[in-house]
Task: structure prediction
Amino acid sequence: MKYTSFLILFLFFSPVFGLNDVMKVKLSGNNYSDETVVRFLPGATQGFDSQWDAHKFFSLNPNVPQIFTRSNITDLAINALPSLLRDTVVELHMLIPSAGTYTIQGIEAGAFQQGVSVLLEEISSGNLYDLRTGSIFSFTMDTAALNSPVKFIVRFIAPPVITSAGATCLPGLNFIYAEGSLLHINSDLALGQIIDIFDSNGRLVFRQMHATAFPEVDITDYKPGVYLVRIMTATGSFSRRILLQ
Result:
């Protein structure tokens, strides 16, 4: 499709900025596919930026599933947003031609820094899926759901800021503690969610998806220092710093 070619040219020949902090989301089904791009860069705004954003050009083929984002009322193929310094939510809009099974895949077209999480959330269930792994998520659309509101959002979780200062216990996070060679995360917030642990350099050292029980993390090889435990839920991310001695 012509707009796909334009999208690729824009990304790889931008005269000012390199290819960083770019997530391409691919929708496939009905023997066709379409893509939309979200990127973060200095100088971009939440509104339409003519030098970085790109309008969505819709296929004239009625059988093609189509995916895009929006800025106010403008449909976008490329959505440039300000630098990722805080958690950001982007709605995925889709035009689905017929009932059936479709897939969504995240493709990291420009590398995000360590500690950034990009999560696809299915609004109806609250389930979260990690788009940075390149995994393919399948979903089914029935006839009644074809004209339903937005089904998915993408949560871009900013990298953690870790300091040596003590942390205040947040509700639900006051039962995170180390005992022997295990770190216990005895919090109801953790159940069914995504748990990350970062070292003092912001490097991801542990991740568990969709925890079904209170995690016990083997910290035998963890060096003494400050770590950050982050729990990502459908309503946001919660974190607490811990000191391992």
Summary: The CA atoms of residues 47 and 71 lie 6 Å apart. DSSP finds one helix and 18 strands in the chain. Helices lie at 2-12. The chain has a mean pLDDT of 80.
